[in-house]
């Protein structure tokens, strides 16, 4: 039997419920983190039966039943497999591949296979998925205080998740389908507790979409230009200023999938990444200029601090930077 077959036999909610008290909320189950100490008071540990996965927002640990067993019991791969076999009622059957590789090799191959599937297929969430969260402007005040408008929060469906204490927002592919949920913690002690400030609620391999493009597609096509930021908040801020031909790559480098999407859009691409990123050294951005005109914002006059996004110093500074943009040769 392959490790993947063993994992598929196990109901991850039933398995983890032996060790973590879980409360159902929609299609998710929440409990307190089993991986952090001292014990937390607010649930930040999520389990999803539909894709047989868990994610712990406190520690940043996520995976499947096999990953949980290894982490929870702090045991080897072979020991974790034996625990899963015992739960599944499998006795005496070896977890091996057709060519008799060791179980640890099977594990690595299984994980590699799953990563490939995530990159090529991904997940599509229901259009009403965001209805499980609250439209609570009081909880979103941290972004309102930074100058983001309520209209922008509404347009991009920015809500609040009381279970994980996070601002949450849907991430859509270019067709408008929800492929992930992004989250920003509101815990003021996130650094001390080593909680990720930003996270994704569902695992994925290489990021293959561009945040905000689906919502801004009409303006992008009409203007013949798209401005690319790193983070979603920059898209929201630009939208507040009336700049609606934007998107965010959700990281500091362009993936091959994102490069292909931008090439297919066929419009001018202006990269407005954070100041500490040298876009001229990005391999996929260099490839992109073979298909479309590529320009980039360069802070030649020190208007930004070291790690600032081009929108962080206000609309006038951004407009100045945009006016002084350069073409990539």
Total number of β-strand segments? Answer: 14
Which structural class best describes the helix and strand composition? alpha+beta
Strand content: 15-25%
Helix and strand pattern: HHEEEEEHHHHHEEEEHEHEHEHEHE
How confident is the prediction overall: mean pLDDT? 87
Number of domains: 3
Query: Which segments are poorly predicted (pLDDT under 50) over 5 or more consecutive residues?
Result: 97-107, 109-120
Could you please say which CATH topology of the largest domain applies here?
DNA Primase, Chain A
Q: Please tell me the CATH architecture of the largest domain by its name.
A: Alpha-Beta Complex
Count of helical segments? 12
**How is the biggest beta sheet arranged?**
5 strands, antiparallel
* CATH evolutionary superfamily of the largest domain: Zinc finger, CHC2-typedomain
Description:
The structure is a single chain. This protein is an alpha+beta fold and 329 residues long. The protein has three domains: 3-120, Zinc finger, CHC2-typedomain (DNA Primase, Chain A, Alpha-Beta Complex), CATH 3.90.580.10; 129-200, DNA primase DNAg catalytic core, N-terminal domain (Alpha-Beta Complex), CATH 3.90.980.10; 213-327, Dna Topoisomerase Vi A Subunit, Chain: A, domain 2 (3-Layer(aba) Sandwich), CATH 3.40.1360.10. Helices cover 33% and strands 17% of the residues. The protein contains twelve helices and 14 strands. The chain has helices at residues 3-9, 12-16, 65-73, 77-88, 103-120, 141-145, 150-155, 213-223, 232-240, 256-265, 283-288, 315-323, and strands spanning 23-25, 28-31, 45-48, 53-56, 61-63, 159-161, 166-172, 178-185, 198-200, 225-229, 246-248, 268-271, 294-296, 326-327. The strands form three sheets. A five-stranded antiparallel beta sheet has the order 1-2-3-4-5. Helix 11 links the parallel strand 12 (268-271) and strand 13 (294-296). Helix 3 (65-73) crosses helix 4. The protein is globular. Residues 97-107 and 109-120 have low confidence and may be disordered.
